[in-house]
Design goal:
Keywords: Membrane, Transmembrane, Transmembrane helix. The structure is a single chain. The chain has helices spanning about 10-25, 35-50, 55-60, 65-85, 90-100, 105-115, 120-140, 160-180, 185-200, 210-225, 230-265, 270-280, 285-290, 295-325. It has about 325 residues and is an all-alpha fold. It is globular, with a radius of gyration of 19 Å.
Amino acid sequence: MDAFAVPSPALFAGLLVGTVLALLGRAPERVPRPATSVAQAVIGVVIGVLAQSSTLSAVAQDWLPVLAVSLGTLVLSMAAGLLLGLQRGVSPLTGMLSLTAGGASGLVAISRELGGDERLVAVVQYLRVGLVTATMPVVATLVFGAGHSGAVAPAEAGAPWYPGTALLVVCCAVGIPLARLTRVPAGSLLGPLVVALALSLSGATFGATPPELIVAVAYAVIGWQAGVRFTRASLGTVARVLPLATALIFGIVGVCAALGLLLSRLTGVTPLEGYLATTPGGVYAVLATAISAGGNVTFVVAVQVLRVIIMLLIAPFLARLLSRFRRP
């Protein structure tokens, strides 16, 4: 998967292998709950450490338009998801989780716990990421006049594993019991995420990030969880939904681009920076494009990370509200 530049290759590898074995009748019925809880916690920490103190300072002056546009992007994508939920075999909750913009791995990780179909959520979420990533350089160049996208310098190799492992242990040891105590939905993800977010914003992580191998295993477990539940009937549902999902994704991309232009007018950033800041997904491709174009990288990434964090904090509560609303 990595060789074909697939986003979150370990997650897709787990999804593909789990699906094939499930269709052959050789997969277990489910992944043990402790394994999925730990995987969710790891992903929560990964997302939490994305936020830095520079994230807040970059948007502090223009916090109101940034917040309004971020919420607008979320409302738009969730509304498109409810439209997807009108399809036969797709619940409104599953549709909403499938098309909500940002934090694909986090939503896939918690979708089953929230009552959604994580198989469909995984496929549609990463279809969104793939389409956004594929179209972003073209739109940035042809529409907004971005320079040629060069390669982003790879992350520093050979970093010691123990600071990141210690960070994971602390975030999980504090975050999971805290989430259970407060009865937060999707607590295995949200508890460690909030602790990692607090530590990162206070500078207490000292630049530590979860080790890549542990993160890859966590992604694989989440993919495997979705894959082993596939049946021939569910595969047919996914195939039937994809045309509408694709159309809705392109619609979301277009409206988010318009919101980016609005953000540009309200904050004074360039139209390209506004577009990149509001693109519904593909944060690493956004980063690469912003760097190569010489844009305001800090602002772009700050808006992207802010949207992901807001989404993951409110999505479980919206899902719970939606499930209650649908009860007879």
